[in-house]
Structures are given as structure tokens and as C-alpha cells.
Amino acid sequence: MYGITLVFFGACDSPPKTQQQEAIARVGDDYLYRKDILNLIPENTSTEDSTLIVQSYIDRWATQKLLTEVSEINIDTRQKKELEALVNQYKIDLYTSAYIEQLVKKNIDTLVSQEEMMQYYEENKTNFRTNIKLAKLRYIQVPNEHQKFKEIKERFFKPKKTDSQFWDTYQVQLNSVALNDSVWVDLNQIYQKIPFINPENEEQYIQPSTTHEYKEDKSVYFIKVNKVLKENEISPFEYIQPAIKQVIINKRKLEFIKKIEKEIIIDAYKNKKYEIYK
pLDDT (tens digit, 9 = 90+) per residue, 171-180? Predict the structure, then answer.
């Protein structure tokens, strides 16, 4: 199928006849079957590469099996018991987490009203402080030779409500543009979008109610900073709103999980499935 010779490990016992045609490798009593590698090879992979991928997979499978066998023989009894306890606990955690997550998805309302978020913000706003400077600003990068250069500059620095159609027409011709200065952004976003601003010089550019014109080789940046919030100030509601929504949803989840755990104990106790011996 994949141009590889069947590989067998361990003693020379054969797999059961019903499985003989499907087994491609063996370690002790464990078999690797052809069905286990059916989705291993990406489409359009050459025969040579397919062979290498399959052989590598078989080698890893065999190595894990052999190492596990050797480990179980050579690890001392005390450590073996500790590891088995960890494995059992991990299994318990996986099952319970999956079940609880399933219940949470079915029962938790993820819709959070604006009023609920605002109330939570007002009650906890001192906990929501900025860890980086935030700013409201607008900027554009205009090619030097743009035919509407002067008009673009004038409309940018002296905006009017009637300018929307103009920007709809010309902003696609600009190298970089962000005209919405009603949204708070952090300095990391600014560094990415406006490369000449960096941690060393941001104090020069990111100041409230300032404008800047920065010339590059073939273009000019126009920047207009509206407002600025420094580090450790209370974050604005509109900036922290997504985080507040998640906090409220997580709080609902925790309350629901506590309720489920309590109900399980009560029901088991009532049905005499759970007892405490004194």
C-alpha cells in the first residue's frame, strides 16, 4: 500500500489469523495495524517520502512500547505505585473535566448584558488598571506623489462629518490607515502599525491632543493623538469590556460547578450511595 516491507518485532509469533493481513508490526503481544496509519500520509506525497513517514512512525511506536515494557520491569515498586496513582488521577481528571465541560456548555448562559458588565466594572474598577499606555489616535501613511496629497492632509487634520465618502474612495490607495480615534489601543499595537514609533521615542509622539507629520523615503505619516492613558490608571470600560464579559462567564461557570458538586454529594448521600464511617 505504501511501498514498505512489513516490520515485526519481538518473538516470531504470528498475529491471530483474522488480523494477520492487517498487522504491520508487533512488539510482544501488541500489534500495529494498517488501519492505524491510513490517515498518516498527506495527499500528493511521493512513494519515497511515504515510506519514510510510515517507517518513522513504526519505529516511534515500537520504541515507545519497548521503553514502556523496560520501564515497568526496572522501576522500583514504590515509584511504580506513585506513577500508577498519578495515571489513575489523570484519568479521573480527564473524565470529570470532560463531563463538567459538557454540562457547562449546555447550561451556562454566555449572553452578558451591557448593564451587568457596567455594574461589575463600577464595583471592581480599581482592579482593572492599565499595565501599558493606551491611546486614542488616528493615522495614515500617504505616498509622496499621491495626486490628492494636499487634500488628504487637510481632511485628515481638519476632519468633517461629510468626509466619509472621500475616505471611502481614497483610503484604499494609502499604504496604511486607521481613522477611528474612538477606540483605545495599547502601545504594542501602535509599534506594529507605526514602525518609527518605538519604546525609546514613544514619549515624543504619544501625547494627548498632539499631531505629527513624519516623512519617510517615499511616503509621509500623519498622526493625530486624541487621548492617552498612562500605566496603572483605571482602564476605560470600553477597553476592558471583553475581559469583564469573560470574567462574568467564568464566575457563572464556577458557581454552576460548585452547585453540581454539591448536588452530586447530596443525591448520593440520600440514595445511600455515599457514606462516611465514623
Answer: 888 989 999 9
